[in-house]
Amino acid sequence: MDENVTTTFWSVLEWYMHQQEMNQMMQTAARKEIDDQMMDRDCDRWKVFGFDTQRTFVRTLYVLVTCRTRTTARQGLDNGLAVRAPPMAVSTWSVFRADIHHQLIVDLADNMIRLGLKDAGYTYLLMDAGWATNKPNCDECMAKRNETGHLYVDPKKFPNLKETVDYVHSTGLLFGIWFGFEMCDHSNDYSSSYLAKDNDDVDLADLDAHFFASVGVDAVKHDICSLVVPNTTEGIAHNFHKYERMSQALNQTGRPMLYDVTLMVSKPRAVPAYDYNYIWSPEPYGEQNVRRIANTWWSVPLNKYNCWKCCVHPQEYLVSESDCEDPDKLAAWRGLLPMLDVQDMGTPGWDGHWDWAGAGKGWNHLDQLSVCMGKSWYGPGLTPSEQRAQISLWAIMASPMIVSVDTRDMVEGDYCHTLITNPRLLQVHQDLLGHPGRRLKNNLDSDGTVESQIWARPLLDGGVAVVLFNRSEQCISMTISLEETGFVAKTAVVTDVWSNSMFNATSSLTVTIEPHDVSFLTLTPDHYSTRTTDEVLPYRSLRKKS
Hints:
546 residues, eight-stranded parallel β-sheet, 18 helices, 30% helix
């Protein structure tokens, strides 16, 4: 049994059997049912987070969490990847856009290792758009393809893409690649066979999947293929087949490749506007369908924007806020708050899919984080407090943790490095229970505006991770009961994720929070108070090297 599985085994045993001696725990876990009273207690706790369950759930949980990856994966895409926790990666997109090349990828990989990002859990280096180009002087070629239908790698940027990928692998990192737009607009379809010169019948999905496998790709980000997907049964099915076909082709190569999909559908723009006549939502495609084909699926109405809340034109520049309230203007609210709020507003296509994600199911992808960016083509940037708020919420919601940073310029120990490698943050994000959190409560001010929120996520050790989110422009004090977070023990050992301070709480706790900031706390049953850091952190990659 490997170390991760062993660690999980002991964590589960401690959770349920902590009132017994260690020798009793080892015997009882093998041959007895867990005490009914304890089971009732835990099931009451799960109901706070949306589990309307019977006591058998926790027995099932014990088996699921301790089983090997392949067994758990059967609930979602069966490729054995990102089964127990969401993936973590560094992406090229927000910083470099299409300005990428072999030496840049080499330098980014080297500096990911220098900075300890791989050891912290950022195991993927994702190369986004810009690696492919149209073949010169080839009128019969499809976009980004050659005469035989193969994807055409830009020879100036990447003279030998396999050498680039091999170098990334030599550092111990995994390599991801972007795929979308013209590459799949007319391919991977019901009629995905491409009649090519001297090549009678080529299935592009198979061709592309085998190309990715041949160069050693470990993850595929499948972006949108068209900006127009009719919101009809036929239109949705037609678009879905592109992704389903690629998912099948990737799995048939025999090489495990993480598969991330962006599913969209057209919709009438309504005000206040959170879309440009289309939304990126998995919901019209159906939970079982989406989980069956993908490891992660985009769960944002539009692409991210680096701001708190701003009105944005489709061509990525700020416009007057009144444009987002004008039915005749094509502008939409984007930024951190709109991204969070649209999932609770009853927006068509966003009835709620919080419970789609989890260990063995797949993960809701809330797009790349806007941290460490500053002012850029993607907006004015987030303040340090807002960055801390965003990455805390991503950890609570168990979204893939994708950062786009120039690792060549990052200094070990600076604000950005400390922010994205905080071990207590990543402990929550990678918690082996694998149950995403959600918003539990909105607190309104006198005008009816949401002033603050309580977000929470249950943890494997019987504790709860809580984010108290101050959305207002003033410093506020928040008092919460332990019960309303889903915590059931009488006394909690409270750890502040960002300051690492610890204190005990009984029944309730009070914190002061600056504007646009969070208090990120973990509440742990007091019988864990003597555990060391190595015992608490579940992943070897999160532990400090001796």
